[in-house]
């Protein structure tokens, strides 16, 4: 029995790795990256790394055998997710006085740094953090240092800055460096939101009692701040408006508190906000007016608001587009007119405590050259007034038997399970929509004869389904599968396996599971033809091209057949590179246009955008050009396509000889001139099944209809004429 269980477990692990790509090891980021790093490149004069601390992921930095500091990867301590949605791994070394003695940007996936900004420029900026005093940062709340930013990489640099400071403080406190100690748990009274509290109905009172907090800066203050900078160019580019002119007046309030939300937004909008927020989420309203925008004109959908960040102790929250809603009207009496009014969601998993003080940090920029800017920051402090919170009664601690404590204590695995379960609960709507899409598509495939009976209705159904795939799955949910997952398969065999890594992204998990099932029933076409956002984009654009009468090119069969192998060659090449360097393979996987067109919404360096534009333009003339000849993911899915259990697509014996109708009308030329459908190339669009029943196009169906008409006309004519030997009598008048 144990052998059977072990075999089943091993089989499940192998199947999961095949379907979902590489698992994430349970090891720390430090343990993974340390063998590739050199101590001398991190800290001047260092010659080796020592042993790793037994309790936390930090390693000794040695010089002549003596420890001169501790090194760590910021991602092991704080969230370092950048614009790309992936972690930015920065290695930092600090000495016993809690001074930073070395910084190195180790690994990242930031598109703005990979393309367009020299790597040396970013590394030089990161190196400037040497000498950072973490003791001073602890005393100032992380604002004792000057923030340097590279124009065009604002979000990336701010994430690096934030991670260096916050991770450094955590490490210094845990190691007791520089006299810093771990913060003791607050033994005093604990507080919570008081849902029964009431808020004043007018703006002036809300300002007076601290419900609303303000940051007001005039032109004179801004000019003085930039004039005090080391870069003399900042002072020379002073604003010319009168010094008393309002540069920005920014006000904030925690509107997730029911009373504050109703007072500022009105009952209906406040109720909508509460439904928008998940369990444990909070929301802050920020309004502003003046010369400067706290959102910025450079903000784009899919990106980050790079001018504001919420900071509370070691917690920092950067707001993305999905965490944002506009405020159309302010309900509080006497509210001023603001140029901007917006809501920002604070996720439950950020660690934010609404009863404690926090601040909104505003980044102010000034151009000092054609493409150069300098930056400074200002803080809007906020503390929820006492009338909106109440003390939590401390329950006496119950004595828990050791046996019970051993069972109920939460392990790291329990914490990971709680995390992915919380993520799934927070994405119930997205999961439901995807579930409905998969259910509908499965029904169409199982009952395809009925589904394709009405040619026009099926055409518009497919157009509608592809639109939902592109807009919802692609641009809104970013549920675009990639060959990168499959490329890293063999790299994962040497690391530990964890289900938790796959469950953290519900839509991707469900899609991979559905692809695995579809490969057994229908082949690759279920995903490529219906659920791939970039494939949907190509087909929808081609349909527009047809409406505009753009000529459609049908490649000669010989040329078309020789172009098929290109995508398989690309996939095998990427797979081979991944065996030696998964990072290099990920870079080469940019042959997939998915990241540019779907994930980053074309907000990327021009070579990437130009490449995607070229593919889409080619697709206007040759439908699904990229899918046919270049897609490595399609090639990877096509390899097991012949393992499908059924042939669902119906064919007549006349198909291919002599009839070539389906072959000529197949959108991707997946039907051989001899009539066979190539399962490796078929995208299951079901157009051939529409033709299979067409009474106006299919010669076989037309012939059958004529035969039936003739057979049915015979008896009727006989009844009308009578017996063959009987003469027909024509009545006379």
Topology diagram in text:
Elements: H1 2-20, H2 29-33, H3 39-42, E1 48-52, E2 59-63, E3 66-73, E4 89-94, E5 100-107, H4 111-114, H5 119-127, H6 134-140, H7 154-175, E6 190-193, H8 203-208, E7 213-218, H9 219-227, H10 232-236, E8 246-253, H11 258-265, H12 267-276, E9 282-289, E10 308-312, E11 315-317, E12 324-326, E13 340-346, E14 358-367, E15 373-382, E16 389-392, H13 402-408, H14 412-426, H15 428-446, H16 448-451, H17 455-476, H18 483-487, H19 489-492, H20 499-503, H21 506-521, H22 525-528, H23 533-547, H24 557-563, H25 565-580, H26 582-588, H27 594-599, H28 606-621, H29 625-629, H30 632-638, H31 661-665, H32 687-692, H33 699-721
Antiparallel strand pairs: 1-2, 2-3, 3-4, 4-5, 6-16, 7-8, 8-9, 9-13, 10-11, 10-14, 12-13, 14-15
Largest sheet: 5 strands, antiparallel
The CA-CA distance between the termini, in Å, is 98 Å
Radius of gyration: 32 Å
What is the number of strand segments?
16
Q: Output mean pLDDT.
A: 81
Number of helices: 33
Low-confidence residue ranges: 1-26, 112-116, 403-412, 720-733
| Category from helices, strands and their pairing | alpha+beta
Q: In which order are the strands of the major sheet placed?
A: 1-2-3-4-5
| Helical proportion, percent range | 40-55%
Gross morphology: globular
Amount of beta strand: 5-15%
């Amino acid at each position: 029995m144990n052998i059977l269980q072990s075999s089943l477990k091993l089989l499940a692990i192998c199947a999961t790795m095949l379907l979902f790509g590489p698992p994430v090891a349970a090891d720390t980021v430090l343990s993974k990256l340390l063998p590739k790093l050199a101590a001398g490149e991190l800290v001047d004069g260092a010659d080796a790394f020592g042993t790793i601390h037994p309790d936390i992921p930090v390693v000794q930095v040695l010089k002549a055998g003596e420890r001169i500091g501790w090194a760590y990867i910021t991602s092991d301590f704080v969230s370092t997710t950048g614009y790309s949605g992936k972690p930015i791994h920065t290695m930092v070394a600090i000495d016993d006085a809690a001074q930073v003695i070395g910084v190195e940007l180790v690994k990242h996936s930031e598109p703005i740094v990979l393309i367009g900004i020299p790597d040396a420029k970013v590394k030089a900026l990161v190196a400037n953090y040497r000498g950072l005093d973490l003791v001073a940062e602890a005393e100032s709340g992380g604002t004792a240092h000057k923030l340097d930013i590279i124009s065009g990489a604002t979000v990336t640099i701010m994430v690096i800055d934030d991670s260096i400071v916050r991770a450094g403080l955590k490490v210094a406190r845990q190691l007791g460096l520089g006299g810093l100690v771990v913060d003791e748990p607050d033994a005093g009274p604990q507080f919570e939101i008081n849902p029964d509290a009431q808020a004043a109905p007018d703006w002036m009172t809300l300002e007076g009692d601290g419900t609303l907090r303000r940051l007001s800066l005039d032109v004179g203050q801004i000019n003085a701040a930039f004039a005090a900078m080391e870069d003399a160019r900042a002072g020379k580019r002073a604003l010319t408006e009168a010094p008393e002119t309002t540069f920005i007046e920014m006000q904030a309030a925690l509107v997730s508190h029911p009373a504050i939300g109703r007072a500022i937004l009105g009952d209906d909008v406040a109720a909508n906000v509460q439904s928008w927020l998940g369990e444990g989420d909070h929301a802050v309203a920020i309004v502003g007016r003046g010369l400067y925008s706290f959102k910025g004109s450079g903000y784009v959908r899919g990106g980050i608001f790079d001018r504001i960040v919420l900071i509370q102790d070691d917690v920092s929250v950067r707001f993305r587009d999905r965490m944002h809603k506009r405020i159309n009207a302010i309900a509080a009496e006497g509210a001023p007119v603001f140029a901007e009014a917006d809501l920002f969601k604070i996720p439950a998993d950020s660690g934010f405590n609404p009863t404690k003080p926090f601040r909104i940090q505003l980044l102010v920029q000034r151009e000092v050259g054609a493409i150069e800017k300098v930056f400074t920051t200002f803080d809007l402090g906020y503390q929820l007034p006492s009338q909106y919170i109440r003390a939590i009664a401390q329950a006496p601690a119950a004595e828990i038997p050791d046996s019970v404590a051993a069972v109920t204590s939460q392990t790291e695995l329990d914490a990971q399970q709680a995390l992915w379960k919380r993520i799934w609960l927070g994405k119930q709507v997205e999961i439901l929509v995807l579930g409905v899409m998969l259910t509908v598509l499965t029904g169409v495939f199982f009952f395809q004869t009925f589904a394709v009976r009405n040619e026009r209705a099926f055409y518009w159904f497919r157009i509608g389904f592809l639109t939902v795939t592109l807009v919802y799955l692609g641009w809104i949910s970013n549920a675009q599968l990639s060959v990168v997952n499959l490329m890293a398969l063999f790299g994962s065999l040497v690391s530990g396996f964890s289900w938790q890594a796959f469950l953290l992204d519900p839509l991707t998990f469900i899609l991979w599971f559905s692809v695995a099932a579809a490969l057994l029933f229908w082949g690759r076409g279920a995903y490529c033809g219906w659920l791939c956002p970039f494939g949907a984009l190509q087909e929808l654009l081609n349909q527009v091209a047809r409406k505009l009468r753009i000529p459609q090119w049908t490649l000669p069969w010989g040329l078309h057949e020789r172009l098929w192998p290109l995508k398989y060659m690309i996939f095998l090449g990427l797979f081979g590179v991944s065996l030696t360097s998964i990072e290099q393979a990920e870079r080469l996987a940019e042959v997939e246009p998915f990241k540019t067109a779907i994930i980053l919404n074309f907000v990327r360096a021009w070579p990437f955008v130009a490449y995607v534009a070229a593919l889409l333009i080619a697709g206007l003339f040759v439908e699904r050009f990229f899918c046919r000849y270049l897609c490595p993911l399609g090639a990877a899915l096509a390899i097991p396509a012949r393992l499908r259990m059924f042939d669902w697509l119906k064919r007549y014996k006349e198909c291919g000889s002599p009839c070539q109708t389906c072959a000529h009308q197949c959108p991707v030329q997946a039907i051989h001139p001899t009539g066979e459908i190539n399962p490796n190339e078929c995208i299951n669009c079901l157009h051939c099944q529409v033709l299979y029943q067409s009474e106006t196009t299919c010669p076989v169906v037309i012939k059958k209809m004529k035969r039936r008409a003739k057979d049915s006309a015979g008896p009727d004519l006989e009844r009308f004429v009578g017996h063959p030997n009987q003469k027909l009598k024509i009545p006379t008048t």
